[in-house]
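All the exercises in this workshop are built on plain-text protein records. A record pairs a protein's sequence with a compact description of its fold. Read left to right, the backbone structure tokens trace the chain's path through space. Once this layout is familiar, the rest of the handout is easier to follow. Here is such a record, shown just as it appears in the course material:
>
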Amino acid sequence: MIRHEIHKTVVIDSQGVCEIPNTTVVEPGSIIYIGSGGELKLGERNTLYPNVTIRIDKGYLRTGNDVSFGPGCQIYEPRAGLEIGHHC
């Protein structure tokens, strides 16, 4: 069974909607910021590798299941919304 694992160096500042399932792994150095009115909904078994930055301000990011974000990936202000399907 996969367990919820968010490394102690991860910064999460959520003023909006933030749904991170128990099956998600967030590795060292990642930053998640969601301003008021923003939304982050991750699917099951997502992995954020080291130093991923997700910043959402009045937009949204929704992912399907089994999605991974490679080391150093940066997603900023998807104001019109961004949806990533399963197995990406």
Observations:
- Residues 29 and 51 are 4 Å apart (CA to CA).
